[in-house]
Amino acid sequence: MIVHRTDPYNAEPPPGALVGQVTPLDTFYGRNHGPIPRMDAASWRLRVDGLVDRALQLSMGELERRFPEREVVATLQCAGNRRADLLEFRDIPGQEPWGPGATSTASWSGVGLADVLAEAGLQAEAAHIAFTGTDVSQEADPPQAFGASISAAKATSGEVILAWAMNGQALPVAHGAPLRVVVPGWIGARSVKWIQRVTAQVEPSDNYFQTVYKVLPPEADPAKADPGEGIILGPVALNCGILRPDRGAQLPSGPTEVIGYAFAGEDRTVARVDVSSNGGSTWVQADLDAPESAWTWQHWRTILTLPAGERELIARAWDSTAAVQPESPATVWNPKGYANNSWARLHVTCHP
Ligand code: MTE
Fold it and tell me: How far apart are CA 277 and CA 275, in angstroms?
């Protein structure tokens, strides 16, 4: 893993480790804002409260017995994925320089959030569902447990899971055991780990991390920004990454296989990926995997014939609404460095 910080632990796999459709547990990126809490699953309870007809307190055993088990294969992608490319345009102090590996895919199993909310009886005024974790983050002002919210429409849509298993194994503590939320198609920050409370409410969560994960205009000062300023992040913006060859690779000239992923977020899928080795003057269409579901990345690959010399490989994805990624990091630069979905670029040197 490429460890950006040990305390709290923040690490991404080297890009080449992400070529499989499902990411092994020991390769899945880790993003934490506080210490990883050790929780006693036996005494742990999930509280479901707020604008519901029946508040619930559920043990793991009750969750397993009272609700059907559901599984979803979903890609998680951190809003800070590919921040490193933004830093080349303008510095972003204090934020992890994530490469293209702050994203991974797993099969998640547990219970459907929609089923739990139906059992509690969601009231008509409940427009947002808030989640509270257990880890207290000193990064927050004031320090508080990590939290987030999603719209009630997303929460009751069926694909949102309260997960206790990942790739058929017990959910690792580092990824949120005993129970975490998985919000397919939305930025990773809404998939709250070590969850202890689900609250139905009129307004979005006022948790520090709900409001911090937003795109501010370039001239804004995050420390002074009005809480209402900026675009609060939910669904993931169309994005792609180059996984092979390695950044800075020394290659023989001639045919070179280029492999990457693309991810469209929410219920969009990737429709096309173009690759160029001449600055975008000409493009070839990569072979693109069919979407396994709307909730996962799609891998793509192509062979480029590279002449000797310094080369920049570029990839850009199109989604099922015909939206295409923006060309440069300068277009999307923002003070916290979120949602960089500009064309993926990577330098290689080809020897004769
Ligand atoms: N949940 C809690 N309780 N604490 C956190 O720090 N980080 C969030 C989210 N859920 C976080 C959390 C962020 S920013 C991301 S991208 C994902 O978890 C990362 O999940 P992972 O570490 O399992 O990859």
Answer: 7
